[in-house]
Design brief:
heterodimer, A: mainly beta, OB fold (Dihydrolipoamide Acetyltransferase, E2P), five-stranded antiparallel sheet, three-stranded antiparallel sheet, 8 strands, B: mainly beta, 6 strands, 0% helix, globular
């Protein structure tokens, strides 16, 4: 999985009907310190993640291994909302305070 | 399969119901000499409970789900073993 920061929402009115009701998020991959890689992906979400949230994204066919995405044409899915990241015995991220090194906080 | 070093631990309490394995680790892929190769990734660690600093091997892509007791979890990377030693073949 990759760590990503939700930076927006993709809205599509004309789409495969199997995707009706599925929220699509725009997610930027970040490193464990919170620095953005510049790589973006459109990611399906059934957990209710929103802008600023730090999420775990499963890619490839793994994205279809849930009840909601089983028959859907998706290749990236939010599988978790990150609470903490610990690196070398030190906390680099908590859901309450954001990234320690990269103090951007939740974005509007 | 790939070699990696466990660099950290991630907790994600809000998760899809199908993801039942608890332990998630940050893995830095490395080559056989231990040099970093590419970006860190998050993998499930269902078997070995690798400590930070451990050299492990991991699988990614759809193979990862086969490493779990309950297959078909939405997982694209899993730690499958702790590396005890690496020997280069002579010649």
């Amino acid at each position: 999985m990759i760590i990503g920061r939700v930076i927006g929402r993709a809205v599509s009115t004309r789409k495969d009907e199997k995707l009706l009701g599925t929220k699509l998020l725009l997610v930027e991959e970040v490193d464990p310190q919170g620095a953005g890689s510049g790589d973006m992906a459109v990611v399906a979400d059934h957990l209710g993640a929103g802008p600023g949230d730090v999420v775990l994204v499963a890619q490839g066919s793994a994205a279809r291994f849930t009840a909601q995405t089983k028959e859907q044409p998706v290749d990236a899915l939010v599988v978790g909302i990150v609470d903490t990241i610990r690196l070398g015995g030190r906390s680099t991220f908590t859901i309450a305070e954001g990234f320690a090194a990269n103090d951007e906080g939740p974005q509007p | 399969m790939n070699l990696g070093v466990v660099r950290g631990v991630i907790v994600a309490g809000t998760r899809v119901a199908e993801l039942t394995e608890r332990r998630l680790v940050l893995v830095q892929p490395v080559d056989e000499s231990g040099a970093d190769q590419g970006r860190q990734l998050v993998a499930l660690d269902p078997i070995v409970s690798a400590a930070e600093g451990s050299l492990v091997w991991f699988v990614n892509g759809s193979d990862a789900t086969d490493a779990l007791d309950e297959p078909f979890q939405p997982v694209d990377a899993a730690v499958v073993g702790l590396v005890s030693s690496i020997r280069e073949a002579p010649g």
